[in-house]
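User: Structure please.
Assistant: Input sequence and predicted structure:
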Amino acid sequence: MSRTPTGPEWSGDKLTKPEMVEAFATQLRGVLKAQASFVAEIRGEAEAMWKANRPEGYSSFEAWWRHRWVVGPFREIQDHLEASARLTFELEARYRKGRHEIPEARVAAALEKKQQKAAPQVAAGKTAVPPKPVAPPTAGAGGSRDFLELVNRERSA
């Protein structure tokens, strides 16, 4: 008995483009909806047969209980198939966001940040030019370093 798969091996690597994922999700959704309608048809027939051919000898509660016991799994299977078909929309959206939109936004943000670092920050007339630092006066020619004397010297000069 061989444990190798008989068909071609499939992996998610084939879903590299959003168009591929959209086609896959649409096809899967179609298959799931077809299966759900098939189960709904069988369920409808089972309910109709049960209502038309109620077994004799059962009380009304027991007949209801057996009907519920027979039809319940069909309802659950149908609900699960319909929920799975709805999840294909989420599959498509998550793939598109996770594999394309978010990485593209990250690359664009990184590129913008890189361009901001590379480009000079000065724009004509928009930013204030910081004042140039002034060298402190030295006490060489004038003698003392008193503040008021320095102010008086600047006025007289």
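The two ends are 107 Å apart (CA to CA).
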